[in-house]
Specification:
- The complex is a heterodimer of chains A (164) and B (447).
- Chain A is built from 2 helices and 10 strands.
- Chain A is 11% helix and 31% strand.
- In chain A, the strands form 3 sheets. A 4-stranded antiparallel β-sheet of chain A has the order 3-10-8-5, with no helix packed on it.
- With 164 residues, chain A is mostly beta strands.
- With 447 residues, chain B is α+β, with helices and mostly antiparallel strands.
- Classes of the chains: A mainly beta (164), B alpha+beta (447).
- At the A-B interface, loops of A face β3 and α3 of B.
Chain lengths: 164, 447
Amino acid sequence: MFKFDELCELIRLVGSTEVASLEIEHAGGRLRIDGKAPVPVVNLGAAVPAPTMSAPQTVTTGAAPSGSTQGAPAAGSLEAAGAEEDVHYVVSPIVGTFYRAPNPDAEPYVKVGDAIESGGTLCIVEAMKLMNEIESDTSGTIVKVFVENAQPVEFGERLFAIRS
Amino acid sequence: MFSKILIANRGEIAVRIIAACRELGVATVAVHSEADRDCLHVELADQSVCIGPAASTDSYLNVTAVISAAEITGAEAIHPGYGFLAENARFAEIAEECGLVFIGPSAEAIRLMGNKSEARRSVAEAGVPVLPGSDGALESSRHALILAEEIGYPVILKASAGGGGRGMRLAWDGDELRNAYSMASNEAEKAFGDPTLYLEKFVQNPRHIEFQILADHQGRVVHLGERECSIQRRHQKILEEAPSAALDDELRAEMGRAAVAVARAARYTNAGTVEFLLSEDRTFTFMEMNTRIQVEHPVTELVTDVDLVREQLNIACGEPISIAKRRQIRPRGHAIEFRINAEDPDTLRPSPGRITQLALPGGPGVRVDTHLYSGYTVPPYYDSLIAKLLVHGKDRKEAIVRGRRALEMFRIEGIKTSIPLQLRILADPDFQTGDFNTSFMERYISK
């Protein structure tokens, strides 16, 4: 629909103005150019946003904006502690109830400071009376446990932070 | 009444169920996929649980995830809405085994009506007219040929486990039937994991008329009149109305009695819909029963003043149907529903994307059931239905005029919708006189 240099010209034009976004429908095609990054919309009820946004927090708006919900606590303390590029988050693969130990009297599978091998058991998520052992998908040291024992967890909710 | 229920659905029907729950003082739990975090039902429910990724097979169709979400939130019952798990007998069974009330019919009733050839047999035994055809499933293509000779061509082959047009084949003679048999059987095997077929006489240009029924655990079954659903393309309804221009009081009463008999034969409870084909000579035959709340249920709500979702909740917790025993339910005025889909009105291709501007129509006799809001992004993963515009008038003429102005006042920017197509249907002379059947939409489909 557009030639390459025409596209470049459009992108330059949008970039040099205050236009937030430009959408053109032409000859059966659709083009959208977003201008200067808009002010991020923050969901009510989420953690208080930091006044200055650091670069990695910029979320690319797509089909599924990953707004924080009640179930995804902002890991502010961890991220604020400095460069944490080597921290990996293990998220719950299913909805259910989170258990840190195989039974109420047993020791937790892991504690903060423990070393974990890839494939090692981290916890149990119970769904429909089935105990699903959740294995670590990385090796490293447990630096944070996000959920209290016997609490409900959602699909995709952060369970552990592991530093490699 | 329940104190908390989980809604195993998304979009407009989830919002509709939340509305009924709020009026009854029932707390709600929304479930959602990762793609639906910003969906309105999540915002409006008292609690929400993310149950899986965008693909519905891993989220809204994931039985374990849905039941687990109900368990961790302490919900007492599950409303399945329509689509997804609504007509899954196994799901209804598992919910009950886990101590959750399934807001709908029993697993046995779902199973019976889900097996189209079994449904046909039991309905026929109850004295409800069915099309000439096989008594239950076919044994072989030879069996099909012998039957077809008996009842006369054209005939249609359908999948026992079927629905939505898959595993369906039309045949005008023996050669076509032989080919159609293996094709339909293969298709049915692939789509439903069950290759069995049944055969029926094919009715040319019928009307599609369905009856809403309610049945409670005290044994009372009532019908709430018909919905005219002939305006459809590829078995997808586009516009529904009540009452139907094709029915008079006598035929309505007769078809209503048949619908009640179908429900009784299935020992049905809760809300359901019995679909009939009405041929040009005004004879009607049973087509199938939908064992859930329908998309088009508000059409009936408008002409009867009965809140069907509220009735579903009442019945599910053991209360009787709230309609007075002596009250005769007759359609009051005329209602039309326009399905507004996120799709190109000419090519009918889906048109997902961000809603930049939204203004809903209002004024006398207008209702909009929707989950849209300005800034919402219609995801590409699910059904394209984004809103249902309903109008109610003192008669059909008034409803049509009202529908036109409401469609014109409906503003959605950012995506394409079926509003222009709905306006074309309203302007059609055959639609205006009420003289149409299921072939109506063929004139609007570009080849």
